[in-house]
Amino acid sequence: MNSSRRTQLGALLAAALWLSGCATPARQLPPEAAFWAGRIAVQIQSQPAQSLSAAFELQGSATQGELQLLSPIGSTLAQLNWTPENAKLSQGAHQWSGTSLDELTTRLTGTPLPMAALFDWLAGQATAPAGWQVDLSQWAKGRIQAERQSPAPAVQLKLVLER
């Protein structure tokens, strides 16, 4: 093999290795994991009042999943991943890890969200964790509303699912 050919092969190998290092790792969720997308709004009746509204993509289950909050132009505002062993929240350059999904949803939204119940609500089951009430009367139209009165402050959660 001549020197020029070896140089070309070496460059090709280097480029392939460099590109493989840039590849995004495959998601850890099984391919049959449930998936939902739409809009989410969280209002917290604190002093001062807090609110969050974003597009979302949610997949997985209460034990293992991923939640992405997206801006109106589709850029990722935050990403929350969880498994039975741990949870991770990424917001821009900031990352937090822990074993408590409540802790990370509080950091993300200002209040702990009932993620296990949320998956039940998406399936049309009116599970009511402590302090929460859910309204699934518009579930068939892709609308879910839930409220928490206690502990204070009161929280309203609204989901509008894409068709």
TrEMBL record:
> What keywords tag this UniProt record?
Cell outer membrane, Chaperone, Lipoprotein, Membrane, Palmitate, Protein transport, Signal, Transport
Q: Which GO terms describe its biological process?
A: protein transport
Main localization is membrane
PROSITE patterns linked to this entry: PROKAR_LIPOPROTEIN
- Please state the span of the N-terminal signal peptide per the UniProt entry: 1-25
Give TM segment ranges.
none
Q: How does it sit in the membrane?
A: Lipid-anchor
The cross-references to Pfam families, in alphabetical order and at most eight, read: LolB
Q: Does the keyword DNA damage apply?
A: no
Q: Name one GO cellular component term.
A: cell outer membrane
| Compartment list | Cell outer membrane
The UniProt family comment states: Belongs to the LolB family.
Record text on subunit structure and interactions: Monomer.
Which named protein is this? Outer-membrane lipoprotein LolB
Its lineage opens with: Bacteria, Pseudomonadati, Pseudomonadota, Betaproteobacteria, Burkholderiales
